[in-house]
Each structure stands twice: as C-alpha cells, then as structure tokens.
Design goal:
four-stranded antiparallel β-sheet, 27% strand, globular, binds zinc ion
C-alpha cells in the first residue's frame, strides 16, 4: 500500500489522524509492514502484507497480528533490487 494512501486513513472509531511506523517498504514507497497508531484512543492497526488491518475490536486477533508482524522479515524488502 502506498504511503500517500495510508496518509489519508483515519481511525475508524474517532476519525483521528493516524501515525505510521514503517517496518518494511520497497523502493516505490509501497509499505509492506508497519503499524498505524491513533493518539486519541491508543488503538493500533498493523499493516500486514501491505493491507492495513482495521477491524472492529470484536474481530481483532491480537495474537495473530503480532505473529504476522514478527515472522515477516524486513530484510526481504530492504534488499537492493535485482538488476534484470
Ligand atoms: Zn482512535
């Protein structure tokens, strides 16, 4: 997901602006892994495989999200691009 797209997202609960912590992105500014945080309600929304997970509380699976964020190695995205 593009950084510019993520900048337009807001918290689904209170419509506050979200702050982003980028864990892995490619050279085209696509964010693969990261965390969006809301200062208003202190919720966080992980970005996993480029998809922001912004489910309502009852559908959240913190253990699953945490596992996905840690098992993904940032290295694979930060390597220099292959020369074709
Ligand atoms: Zn919020």
């Amino acid at each position: 997901m593009k950084r510019t797209t993520i900048d337009k997202l807001c918290c689904p609960f209170d419509k506050a602006d979200l702050k982003i912590k980028i864990i892995a992105q490619d050279l085209d500014d696509n964010i693969h892994e990261g965390v969006l945080t809301c200062d208003e309600c202190n919720r966080y929304y992980p970005i996993i495989n480029g998809i922001p997970i912004m489910n309502p509380d009852e559908y959240r699976e913190p253990q699953l999200e945490k596992a996905a964020l840690t098992q993904q190695s940032a290295e694979q995205y930060l390597k220099p691009p292959k020369v074709h």
